[in-house]
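Hi all, posting the design record for the shared folder.

TITLE: backbone redesign
STEP: 1 of 1
STRUCTURE INPUT:
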């Protein structure tokens, strides 16, 4: 049974202002778990938190429930102060983005996460690295606190689970299937959610397809590295999951790396592996993540980062 849910509930009840956010450039787990928490608190406690985000929310999620209620951090007044701030799926302090100043200015911080993190931000932590998605921990809290859920909450939790497991490719334990089965039995229509997520922009698909065709192979084809330079990065919607997924389907490929030139001398790295843990590779570049899906952002030239990434895999 998850502990300290009663403390969390009391903090919600006593708070006059509440904010929620995930990591910068939120993925499905971060944005959907945050929106689910917003609706859970509104439904059960009659209070309306604000969901704050930084970076880009992929267009895939334009049609998820309550998406339009998320607020870009620059639209929040500079001096905003919250009684309670909830971080969900944030990863590490460096991933807070523009929301960090609001977190630091809050009276009490709760974190709900499934990432490995040695620098915890929360005063109260619901962290479980065995979970495939932070949404599962949110679901645990709902059940432990006997809280109500409506169809929006259930759909959001299911979308978070589907996307963060790579449509169930990155499953850690059977509990993700148990949670998913319970959500389906409670009324979630998985087919409808899958169709809802088919919402990419044409330019995005064309850029990602071109990126796949130009990828380079190393280590007898065990490593493939794809690149999106700055002129095309603005057309990339999210983290380039289509690129990573397509390249991972190639026979013999073990590691997939996508380099994204956010701006001059700022390069994002997304790393995927089929069987060998690569989170330590991401950590060596100042990032982190899961065993088989991780990433980092490096302040350096594109060519230097490219060379360092290839070098990092040479003994794997």
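Okay, here is what came back for every position:
SEQUENCE:
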């Amino acid at each position: 049974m998850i502990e300290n849910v009663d403390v969390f509930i009391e903090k919600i009840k006593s708070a006059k202002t509440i904010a929620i956010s995930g990591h910068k450039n939120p993925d499905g787990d971060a944005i959907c778990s945050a929106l689910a928490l917003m609706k859970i608190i509104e439904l059960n406690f009659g209070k309306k938190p604000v969901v704050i985000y930084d970076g880009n929310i992929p267009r895939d999620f334009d049609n998820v429930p309550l998406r339009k209620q998320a607020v870009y951090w620059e639209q929040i007044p500079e001096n905003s102060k919250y009684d309670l701030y909830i971080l969900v799926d944030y990863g590490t302090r460096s991933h807070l983005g523009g929301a960090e100043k609001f977190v630091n200015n809050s009276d009490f911080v709760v974190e709900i996460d499934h990432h490995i993190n040695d620098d915890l931000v929360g005063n109260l932590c619901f962290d479980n690295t065995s979970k495939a998605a932070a949404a599962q921990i949110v679901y645990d809290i709902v059940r432990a606190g006997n809280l109500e859920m409506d169809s929006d909450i259930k759909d959001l939790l299911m979308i978070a689970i589907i996307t963060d497991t790579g449509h169930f490719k990155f499953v850690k334990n059977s509990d993700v299937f148990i949670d998913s089965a319970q959500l389906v039995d409670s009324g979630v229509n998985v087919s409808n959610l899958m169709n809802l997520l088919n919402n990419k922009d044409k330019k995005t698909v064309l850029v990602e397809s071109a990126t796949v065709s130009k990828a380079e192979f190393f280590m007898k084809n065990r490593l493939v590295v794809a690149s999106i330079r700055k002129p095309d990065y603005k057309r990339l919607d999210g983290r380039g999951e289509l690129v990573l997924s397509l390249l991972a389907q190639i026979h013999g490929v073990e590691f997939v790396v996508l380099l994204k030139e956010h701006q001059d001398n700022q390069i994002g790295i997304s790393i995927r592996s089929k069987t060998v843990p690569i989170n330590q590779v991401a950590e060596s570049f100042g990032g982190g993540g899961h065993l088989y899906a991780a990433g980092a952002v490096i302040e350096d030239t594109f060519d230097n980062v490219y060379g360092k990434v290839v070098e990092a895999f040479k003994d794997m």
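COMMENT: The chain has a mean pLDDT of 93.
Let me know if anyone wants the other runs.
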